[in-house]
Amino acid sequence: MTNVRETSTQRPGSLAGKVAFVAGASRGIGATVATALAAEGAAVAVAARTRQPGRLPGTIGSVASAIADAGGRALPVACDVTDEHSVKQAVAQTVSEFGGIDILIANAGVLWLGPIENTPLKRWQLCLDVNLTGVFLVTRAVIPHVRARGGGSLIAITTTGVDMVEHGANAYWVSKAAAERLYLGLAADLRADNIAVNCLSPSRVVLTEGWQAGGGGLNIPPEMIEPPEAMARAAVLLAQQDGSGVTGTVQRSEALTL
Fold first, then answer.
1. CA–CA gap between residue 34 and residue 20 (Å, rounded)
2. What architecture is the 19-252 domain classified under in CATH?
3. Rounded Cα gap, residues 142 and 103, in angstroms
4. Cα angle 60, 86, 173; round to 5
5. pTM for this one?
6. Which residue positions does the secretion signal occupy (predicted)?
7. How far is the C-alpha of 20 from the C-alpha of 131, rounded, in Å?
8. For the chain, does the N or the C end have fewer beta carbons within 10 angstroms?
9. Residue 45: strand pairing partners
10. Domain segments of the chain as ranges
11. Catalytic residues, which ones?
12. Per-residue pLDDT tens digits for 134-173
């Protein structure tokens, strides 16, 4: 029995015929991006650890169901980005159901904004494990499949905090900066394979469920808040790229125009 959630309605769109693997898609930016990619015609693997309702709202099943109810195609895929075997299984399941992968959204992330001197080692390691090693594992796993399709697009979700060096240091910004360096170098390696590799961050702050749970009680002024739909629109634009288009860049959502 297939686990693909779909309806008989096929949506035409800029990503028709494409397959997207969205890591960290059970809520927040990942869920919004997955929904937008499906609305543009892509078949979407909704990948995350969350299979059952928990402390934060959203599961891979609920996101996939919402996409199907809107006329799209979605596959809920259990995936722990810090576990090599789990990532391989999730990618293999996606390829088995949809026939390949054209687009990766490496979005899974954890937040820790505490100052370095008050950061427990386990929090430091968790940020590196999820925000950096997790990006490495999902990217490494999908590259052969994107290459086999003749090209595609890899997108890592990062943060404007990478540039905010006047605000000090924390584990979250450090891990995201390392992910940006990984992707900027990878763009050169994969250009000959017709694969675009870009980073995408919000221009301002997206108040996701994860941010509100782990943001340290920071009060964000209304003018600094960005709707998650801005990230979704930018992700759709970058998902349309290949090695002949926009690649090797760090894009800010509200500034992205192609």
1. 8
2. 3-Layer(aba) Sandwich (3.40)
3. 9
4. 75
5. 0.90
6. none
7. 19
8. N
9. 21, 75
10. 19-252
11. 172
12. 999 999 999 999 999 999 999 999 998 787 777 789 999 9
